[in-house]
Write a structure and sequence with these properties.
The protein is of the alpha+beta class. Helix content is about 35%, strand content about 30%.
């Protein structure tokens, strides 16, 4: 082979010499895309679990808000919910005070009765605010639920001029 012929092989992109470089580039790009997809799977699973928890809480809140705004005193409504196992606990009627630890003092505080929050197994705390005030069935404590299935009975009650939604 003469020098001119070898030189043409290096310049010609369709030549056999150019193919390994193109294939290497395709493999590198495909590897990067696959790695990014694999790294995003745990995040997507976590988001899916959060959406499941928030969907169940929203079912409660929609009914609670409607009852708080429009129902008469003593109105009852039962809602079936199932909190996934990725939920550590959910509290209605208190704002998180001790981080990711389950509250030990369940005494109802009227200043925080319209707050709720949930804690996931990974330790993330998600606090929220509602128009409705929440309490347990005898209006002395907040309502606390763990993962699992519940038939929650909401009742609209008044105590000392304040309206509460009791949960049992």
């Amino acid at each position: 082979m003469n020098f001119r012929r070898i030189h043409l092989l290096w310049i010609d992109r369709d030549a056999v010499v150019g193919q390994p470089i193109s294939l290497l580039m395709v493999l590198i790009v495909a590897g990067i895309i696959t790695t990014l997809l694999c790294l995003s799977i745990p995040y997507l699973m976590k988001e899916s679990q959060i959406q499941n928890v928030e969907g169940e809480i929203d079912r409660i809140l929609i009914e609670a808000t409607n009852m708080f705004e429009y129902a008469d005193n003593g109105s009852l409504r039962t809602i079936s919910v199932e909190f996934p196992s990725s939920l550590r606990f959910v509290v209605f009627g208190q704002f998180p005070r001790n981080g990711t630890n389950e509250p030990t003092n369940l005494t109802l505080d009227e200043n925080t009765a319209n707050n709720y929050y949930y804690v996931m197994d990974d330790g993330t705390v998600h606090p929220f605010h509602s128009n409705a005030r929440f309490s347990n069935h005898n209006m002395t404590q907040m309502a606390l639920f763990h993962s699992g299935a519940y038939d929650i009975t909401l009742e609209l009650c008044q105590q000392e001029g304040k309206t509460y939604l009791t949960m049992q």
